[in-house]
Task: structure prediction
Amino acid sequence: MSGSTTLVDLEKVSVRAGAVRILEDVSLTVHPGDAVGVFGANGAGKTTLLRLIATLQPPAGGRCSVFGADMYAADRFDIRRRIGYIGHTPGLYPELTLLENLAFVADAHGLPESEARRALELVGLSGAADRRTDHSSHGMQRRTEFARVLMTGPDLLLLDEPHSALDADAVDLVDELVHRTVERGGAAVLVSHDRDRVNSLATRTHEIKDGTLL
Amino acid sequence: MSGSTTLVDLEKVSVRAGAVRILEDVSLTVHPGDAVGVFGANGAGKTTLLRLIATLQPPAGGRCSVFGADMYAADRFDIRRRIGYIGHTPGLYPELTLLENLAFVADAHGLPESEARRALELVGLSGAADRRTDHSSHGMQRRTEFARVLMTGPDLLLLDEPHSALDADAVDLVDELVHRTVERGGAAVLVSHDRDRVNSLATRTHEIKDGTLL
Amino acid sequence: MTDAGATPGFFAQVMTIVRRDLLRERRSGEVLWVTLPFGAIALLLVPLAIGTDAPTLQRIGPGMFWVIVMLFGVLIAIRQTSAETQAQRDMVALTGLDPAAIFVGRSTASFLLLVVFQTVLGAVTIVLYNVTPTGWAVLPVVLLLAASGLALLGTLAASIVSTGRSATALVPLLVAPLSVPLLLGATQALEAIRLGRSSLVWVLLMATVGLLLAVAGILSARPLQETA
Amino acid sequence: MTDAGATPGFFAQVMTIVRRDLLRERRSGEVLWVTLPFGAIALLLVPLAIGTDAPTLQRIGPGMFWVIVMLFGVLIAIRQTSAETQAQRDMVALTGLDPAAIFVGRSTASFLLLVVFQTVLGAVTIVLYNVTPTGWAVLPVVLLLAASGLALLGTLAASIVSTGRSATALVPLLVAPLSVPLLLGATQALEAIRLGRSSLVWVLLMATVGLLLAVAGILSARPLQETA
Amino acid sequence: MTSTQHRTTVWPWIVMAVAGLHTFVASMTVSPDVVQGQLSRIMYVHVPAAWLAYLAFGVTMFASAMYLWKKDFRWDRRALASAEIGVLFTALAIGLGMIWAKPTWGVWWTWDARLTLTSIMFFVYLGYLALRRTTDNLDVRAARSAIFGVLAVVQVPLVHFSVIWWRTLHQPPTLLNPEGPAMDTAMVITLLIAVASFTVIYVAMMFKRIELARLEDEVLVADQTSSGPVAGQAVTAPGLTKGS
Ligand code: HEM
Ligand SMILES: Nc1ncnc2c1ncn2[C@@H]1O[C@H](COP(=O)(O)OP(=O)(O)OP(=O)(O)O)[C@@H](O)[C@H]1O
Ligand SMILES: Nc1ncnc2c1ncn2[C@@H]1O[C@H](COP(=O)(O)OP(=O)(O)OP(=O)(O)O)[C@@H](O)[C@H]1O
Ligand SMILES: [Mg+2]
Ligand SMILES: [Mg+2]
Result:
């Protein structure tokens, strides 16, 4: 881990689409060991907040830094390697197999293919490693995303409705992933509509309402 | 409602992808007033079962009928109008607004555009009716799908993980939809990983395991 | 809510699809802003590549026009299918629209877009290649027949392909042989006019091909959907 | 699992992208089974459309070849971007690959595909148009320069417009002007050889354009990603 | 909007009027060309318009490069202003060329490398302007258009040398000929006067356009910092009771 003591530091950040305000004056600090839950109604801006932290959504104003570096000034690709983000929809190539999708990410991280296989095993997909992604069920694709994040071992975990689409066995993956990350001195931000599950996981929770974080 | 007393009648139906057996010897009868819950692990074949009933997935063998008509011999487009299916991913056109997407379906069902507006109001999206679909959040798109099904008032409801992506206010939509349909003499099949929610809704439940329905 | 509305008639269903396609085009501007400029640029590049000898250009001008119209016309006609997701296909299927109405609606929308495409490219050809259009009576007929033939062909190809997933490969192989009679009909009809001969047989050829495609499309629409 | 592996060097990152693109192409077969046949069909249609007069065909053959290579080459080079989903873009961004390496990798993969494309279409041209290729020493150089220029151009244009969905519309407008020098260089170099003159200046023109595009692409990769 | 009162500058309008008049007087007083007669007077607008378009696009390239280097929005606005004026001048050159072509070549338009490439140049910079419209995000807009603004400039040498590379109808270089100007001295001087006046007009227009661009950017920023609607408020709890 880096020497800095804050992993995420947002200060009065706003996100807009033209005149429409999506997020307004959002401030959030995440320290190592934190597991932050974020709740909010549909369309409140939860996904936007996660993508902002993941350096995927440029802010309209305010100061934001991840791992102590200004995330929109620095060479982002260095800090991006340390972020583990799982969005609403799986970002996999449908024509490749599950293993090939993971192997690409492993390759980009300088990891051998064996790591990709091992990660698939961890999420219970060894048997389907060579199945094309578009021949795999929704839950299998979600599991593959978890395998990707397990494989790269990020310091900052950003999970968007992580429990959805996972079966009873697989929901434990979420806890597993969060615990691992937090134990190694990382942190997690979890967005969810499932308050019970997240409350039991999170060290603190926030609510998004009217574009601001409460 | 049609005079027939079974809405869905599957008899030893199997579904395959090449040599891979996805479903095997599945039999299922759904009567008016039934709300059937279906559980199963990731990749078990739940979505495949729903798409089979929705006449979207051709069977490899067995007999299947919906509304008393063989669903793969007859002119399916007549029975399809009476089916309300919500899949994993929203089937909306991203470049159209939410209202335009609904208006297309209304048009196809011979309903006026005002019905589309009213349906959007029912799911709490009046304020976002003119927002482009790709500028709407995941949950807003899911809600729009519920609006579509509310609008067309189907006799057979097929819901694939209906609770996911909906916020605390909107999950009631699922109950509402199921109750409405069942009250008018229709039926519902619900696939979910959320056993508690479905158990409270369903009149009976099944489990899919190793390609067969238990 | 209300009980389902009355099932719309065939024509109303066709119009539903036409409206949808034109609205989507208006929002995405794909034909207008991508295919059309690309086609025009193609016409511009040809003289740069093959040299600038005016008589040659005049000679090949109409031919180039037709080649570009055929190639890009197919792209226009198959545009919807290639980008469609499974979820969108499911949604359309469950609207219960008659597959034949969908076929006719899609073809009609493509036809309208192709007419715009042809008109603009035609103007570009006339200016760039110094072609003097002849046969003012027959020319519009030929253009409309070409547009409708291409629209039908593209829609048919797309609907055959959309059933089997990996079969996109088939589109060119399917379209090429079938577009040859259209191309021949169009070029030969205009050539005949230029030489003062009767173009009737060529116009009839195009009309026949169009008719065959329409019949094939309408008759195959349901069976194709059955296997979807 | 393990702590993250060591960050791969620039070249390793480039190879990661090249492998991914070629694997995706192998699985989807888009270039091989759709673009290539379409290009070949275009070459086939031209003689049908403009009439089969051997000297004319021979005269316009090389030019047609270049036009088709340019048009379809652009389609090949932008193929990845147009179909990419937001989720896939996010995933690639978070791999932390250097945007410049991504640019080089994509261009390289497109270059390899374009070389195949050119080779096949070249053979078709020779057969169909009865063209005798001359300048065996320079020809491969010209072909390789054209392929690399087009690959760079398409990749760059795609990355300039990539974020906005409706902006794909602009790709042809961005690509057309910059492809003119390539087209000019390619045709004029071969013309010079045919006339027994030196083609050096044209080859140099192409090389310069390619170099400029490479520099522009590499330098702009990060700023473009920063603002994504 | 900001509270400061914006005083619009007036002098560019005056300069434009004077320079325009200057061109007109000069081109009308010179004796007509021996071959082309009175028609040759079109040249004193056609040619400066074309050259100033070159200059404008050159400035766009320079300003774009400067933006990429300094990340200063003033350079972005300069690039935009120059490109827009360049498009205007290109249109002028094409329009006058067409008017000139009808009596001399007998057609409004014909296939000719310079004509084709000039119109491609026109569309390319229209594309530049269109590219700027694809986003409201100032940084994104500036970065993208700057990269394109640098690359698009290859059009200029292409148009200029097209008459040499493709030997076609259009006049080969007469004034900028490597072997010295092949033109009557009086005509050369008149042409230079016209070019000078056009340059003055260009500079004046630049001032006006940059001023306008600054205001536009301020409006955009104001719009993006004003309290517009909150996205999430469009979504409410489902109104189920109102249904059935
Ligand atoms: C419609 C079409 C025309 C267009 C688009 C056009 C475009 C241009 C352009 C871009 C230039 C600047 C070239 C350079 O110096 O690099 C130019 C220069 C010139 N044009 Fe045209 N032109 C057109 C028609 C004509 C006609 C009909 C004539 C006269 C018969 C003409 C005569 C000239 C002359 C004399 C120059 C100056 C050449 C020199 O000194 O370099 N143009 N034109
Ligand atoms: N073409 C194919 N080849 C091989 N297997 C396939 C093919 N198509 C589907 N399958 C398999 O069929 C199975 C059933 O998929 P389905 O989407 O119905 O699962 P599911 O029960 O809905 O799972 P989930 O809970 O993840 O949504 C999956 O294991 C999938 O990999
Ligand atoms: N271009 C845009 N124009 C207008 N509104 C937009 C635009 N882009 C996004 N929005 C709005 O921003 C809001 C935030 O979206 P976001 O996806 O972050 O919501 P969310 O909290 O994740 O919701 P969900 O629970 O449904 O996933 C939504 O209301 C969306 O409609
Ligand atoms: Mg969300
Ligand atoms: Mg499923």
In short: DSSP finds seven helices and no strands in chain E. The radius of gyration of chain E is 23 Å. Chain E has one domain: 41-174+183-222. Chain E has a mean pLDDT of 79.
